[in-house]
UniProtKB/TrEMBL annotation:
It is found in: Mitochondrion membrane. Pfam families: HIG_1_N (PF04588). It comes from Panthera leo (Lion). Keywords: Membrane, Transmembrane, Transmembrane helix. One of its GO terms (cellular component) is mitochondrial membrane. The chain crosses the membrane at residues 30-47, 67-85. Residues 2-94 form the HIG1 domain. One of its GO terms (biological process) is mitochondrial respirasome assembly. InterPro entries: Hypoxia_induced_domain, RCF1. This is HIG1 hypoxia inducible domain family member 1B.
Amino acid sequence: MSANKGWWVPPEGEDSVSEKFLRKTRESPLVPVGLGGCLAVAAYRIYRLKARGSTKMSIHLIHTRVAAQACAVGAVLLGAVYTMYRDYIKRTAPDAGEK
């Protein structure tokens, strides 16, 4: 048994968790934005739970889920639009100038 039981060390040649997270963030920067938006909406709606008035708990939770999913889907949509812009419009603009 190892004396240092509390920490996981990746095998040689593999990235640590923070390095892997930073690499994935550079590859697709809107994933953390979507996740952050989702968590922010959920935290705000849970904070406002006591001020929901006469609304049923289940309806409040459904609205929370829908708002959080809207943030995630919005981030995916922005990522897709940015990727299409980068791949098709930005790439074809120099080609049109050469012809």
